[in-house]
Amino acid sequence: MARIGKKPSVRLRKARIRHFLLTTGLNRLSRGWLYRRHHAEGVEIVEQEIIAAGWPKAFDGLRIGHISDIHVGDLMSADRAIEIVEQLAAAEPDMVCNTGDLVDLYWPGVEPVAEAIAAIKAPLGNFFVLGNHDELDSGEDVDRIVSAAGTTVLHDDVALITRGEDRLRVGGIGWSRTPAQCRQRIDTTIGDERVDLLLSHNPKAFDHAAAKNIPLTLSGHTHGGQIARRNKPDANLAVAYRRSAGLYEHGDCRLYVTVGAGSLFPIRWNVPAEIAILTVRCGD
Ligand SMILES: [Fe+2]
Fold first, then answer.
1. What pLDDT score was predicted for residue 8?
2. Which pLDDT tens digit goes with each residue over 242-269?
3. Closest CA to 258 of 248, 266, 250
4. Tag placement on the chain: N or C end, fewer CB within 10 Å?
């Protein structure tokens, strides 16, 4: 939905052109077949165990519901997004981590989705970081809506989760395009503080997160390329990303890149949309 009275940024204008070429235009050429086929595809719940040295023993076995890249817009109605959020709620995670791109191009209409996510009863909380698409129209408005719904937005911030005497530190950085930007945001966000879990839309944050000995980083953004070779999730269209789908290691540190619940264009080939349920084990 284009909005009247606001001049779009250059990035938003480029994204609209890309959206026309890869989504609405392509769909028109297919006489609506692409949308019908895409909307008929489900979202898989993917269970993954992650063993991370340095993960706090008190939180051994924590189940994180990791959702990302919902992209509410032409390819994801608010109603469909709420159904997906209900799938996540039914998995009863201890904690919900949403690594961004809640919206595709524009934020108006995303409020009920933000409310549905915040309503998931995860005992250790509900966290969100902004993705690049969230910032295309207005990152401030996405931040405001998600926060108002009751989710903790980690915009270069660290949250302390306490359970009795035990502590889990969750850091989150705002959208950062390059490894250097990721590094700078991580350094200014956590300084010399110990962080157990980092949320970053961009998986390019992982090298520096590992250098800072953060046991686990969660990311999205790549969508796993949306098109991959059969049984080779890494051989995909996200060629600009060394780590684009699934679990990665760097020394003792771990990265999980979810391929996302929504889409950038209406084709997914060997890369089904997912919600990840991550069970984190202490590897010490
Ligand atoms: Fe995305």
1. 80
2. 999 999 999 999 999 999 999 999 999 9
3. 248
4. N
Classify residue 188: in a domain, yes or no: yes
Residue 253 lies in a domain: yes
- Residue 239: band (very low, low, confident or very high) from pLDDT cuts 50, 70, 90: very high
pLDDT at 15 over 70: yes
Residue 60 CA to ligand 1 center (angstroms) comes to 30
What single letter denotes the amino acid at residue 180?
A: A
Cα of 206 to ligand 1 centre, how many Å? 17
How many domains does the chain divide into?
A: 1
Whether residue 3 lies inside any domain: the answer is: no
Distance CA 118, CA 65 (A): 13
Average pLDDT over residues 109-130: 97
Full domain range(s) for residue 169: 10-282
Q: What is the mean pLDDT of the chain?
A: 94
Whether 210 maps to a domain, the answer reads: yes
- Residue 138: CB partners within 8 Å, gap ≥ 6? 107
CATH code of the domain containing 142: 3.60.21.10
| Spatial CA neighbour of 255 closest among 270, 230, 235, 276 | 276
- Could you tell me the distance, in angstroms and rounded to a whole number, from the CA of residue 220 to the centre of ligand 1? 7
